[in-house]
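Researcher: Let's run the pair from yesterday's discussion. Sequence first, then tokens, for each.
Model: Starting with the first of the pair.
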Amino acid sequence: MPLPVSGGTRVISEKANFRMRAALHAIRPGEVLLPASLAAAAEKGDSLEIPRQDELADLFAISLAYARACLRAADRPATALFAISEPYDDVIPVSSHVTLFDDAPAVTGFEDDGQPLMLLSTEKADFRYACNDEQAKVMADTTEALKRQGHSEEDAVALVNEFWAEPGRRWALLYGDWIGQQTGEHWARLLTQ
């Protein structure tokens, strides 16, 4: 069912399960220009399977760009489930699928699901890139450390989100599980230097 669209820009949060974090850490997709056919579908709020690509990194990048474009076009809070179907033998190629929801879907066993999954949402979230409770705790601890340095709560949260918004940091550090190996104090020092 297509979502109503509008011209407004919405902040998008991401929550990847363990398998998706591992895939994104390994592949590290770049920024891409959305093909015209997908851009038109996104403007309508349509759900569809992403056309196959020669490179896995391109498939991931186009899928993520499409999910974000759909969410930006929606006229109310919405969620996209980005899923990758992995091959079970050499004959079946990898494909991805983006499904749009008017509200956050009830995904059971999300973190431990065998399929790489990511929820992208325009629903309000303090920490836009926290994938699990441990990551949310480290981001909250980083916010507290920034507040002790004199930042307001709002500015501290914005700094944390801005730091993890950089794709290279997410792919290498956040999705590589480095975040939990350091304290909030460490990350606060790193992002203010």
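Model: Moving on to the second of the pair.
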Amino acid sequence: MQTESIAALAASAAAVLGVPAALLVGFRQARAARHAAELTARATHDQVRRQARRDAAVEFITAVEKAKGAALRLYESDEPVEDYLVLAEHRVPLDVNRPLAVIRIEGPDVLAERAQDVGTAMHGLTVRALRMNRLRYARSVLRHAADTGNEIIAAALAQLTDPAGTDEQRTEAWQAIGETGLLTRHQLGTLRQHWRHNSPDLKPVGIANASAAIKNTLDAFIEAARTHLDEPPA
């Protein structure tokens, strides 16, 4: 039916019902205004949510890069582990998990999944960094003891780094170290596990792979964020 016919029919119906034309026009204007307001509110909501997602993504990326730097510094350090517990085991995960939680709430699902992958990789790096830090610290305790005149430790380290040393001699050296009480049982066992034969160097704990995992997952998250934020509003 033609638009003019519909309008004429509506006008004639309004006339039959005794509805003033001005009132009918007012109804139409109110309906149009309400529709426009709904569209504006929806557009504002979409804009606010998109901005929230962008802000959460930026905060998340910044927190991950900061946490990664802290973990790598921890990995290279032989300072007492206790000095880093709050940083590495509590504060850093909290800094990463806060924007991660926002991303999981705000969505979309693809961003939440990519962000969770990054969080998992970050946890892996932190665990390995802490492990190496404790190994370095335990080794530094033994070195300091030997350098300051502890003959038992000095003799044990000499046995552990002797190219001609036997497995039996190395076992005796570890037992002698344990009897000094300088290291806890856990520290001693972990250090023994990672101590290279005939060398003071420590076996790697997979830090390179863990660091690469963060880079790869973070790149995937950034790409997903760009794709989402570049999409036109629905």
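Researcher: Give me one sentence on the second I can quote.
Model: The mean pLDDT is 79.
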